[in-house]
Design goal:
alpha+beta, 25% strand
Length: 255
């Protein structure tokens, strides 16, 4: 009887070696990909931890800087995706914002033909928000922007707001005197004098916010830090009684 040990066939050894090499290469590629997506996730370039929270939610992320350059003025509404299946009254939305501009702006700052667009945001961007209507234009080097919103899935007025960026304003801090001068320059309404001014972080503002018979109305000025400079904005807003924000709104620009 032949008692010599049985050696594996050369082909079998080669196959095992190839499998081991293949597994090593797959593992190496997986580690590289994980590091790559981890870097993208950390710097908030591609938020894979948000896309796959159960599998990759543990990946670290850098905190967004709290500097003033990232600070934004709060608008009276929070933009949310438009609910499907509801037909907003486009004609009514355009008429309401047109009339609000006519009722509040001095004539010299009105367009001869007011252009209202559905979905236009307060900063001139077009968004997929069918309940939002906006106007954005320049006149005598003043930038005028206005917004109106329906309540979601209704044709009921939710809020109105006008922002004006004045031309050739050299001041960098909001004061009551400046606020009263600018609001009377741009707006028709004979508002009560503004006396309430505040500073939050690097933003200063003066505002009067009142409750009227038909809703809440505010007006004032704000100096917002826009990176390397302060941007002055003169504003007014109106929150009707039917608005979902009527009970909680205490300002045009702050939470």
């Amino acid at each position: 009887m032949n008692n010599e040990p049985i050696n594996p066939k050369p082909n079998r050894l080669k196959a095992l070696a190839l499998i081991e090499i293949g597994l090593f290469e797959l593992g190496f590629v997986a580690i590289i990909l994980l590091l790559f997506f981890g870097i993208l996730n950390y710097f908030n370039i591609l938020s894979v931890s948000d896309l796959f929270p159960h599998q990759l939610g543990w990946l670290p992320r850098r905190e967004a800087p709290n500097g003033a350059s990232h600070q934004k003025i709060r608008q009276s509404t929070v933009a949310t995706p438009t609910p499907s299946g509801f037909n907003y009254d486009v004609k009514k939305g355009k008429l309401l914002l047109t009339q609000y501009l006519k009722d509040n702006l001095n004539k010299q700052f009105l367009q001869e033909k007011i252009d209202i667009k559905q979905g236009l945001s307060i900063d001139g961007r077009t968004e997929n928000l069918q309940y939002q209507f906006g106007s954005y234009y320049e006149i005598d080097k003043n930038t005028i922007s206005a917004n109106f919103h329906f309540k979601e899935s209704t044709n009921t007025s939710n809020d109105f707001i006008i922002f004006i960026q004045p031309s050739n304003l050299k001041a960098a801090t909001a004061t009551a005197e400046l606020a009263n001068n600018l609001t009377s320059l741009y707006f028709l309404k004979a508002y009560s004098p503004i006396s309430n001014c505040s500073v939050k972080s690097t933003t200063s503002y003066c505002e009067s916010f009142k409750t009227e018979e038909s809703g809440k109305r505010g007006f004032g000025i704000v100096f917002a830090n826009n990176g390397s400079k302060f941007t002055p904005i003169v504003f007014t807003c109106f929150i009707p009684k039917d608005s979902k924000y009527y009970l909680t709104q205490t300002s045009c620009i702050t939470p």
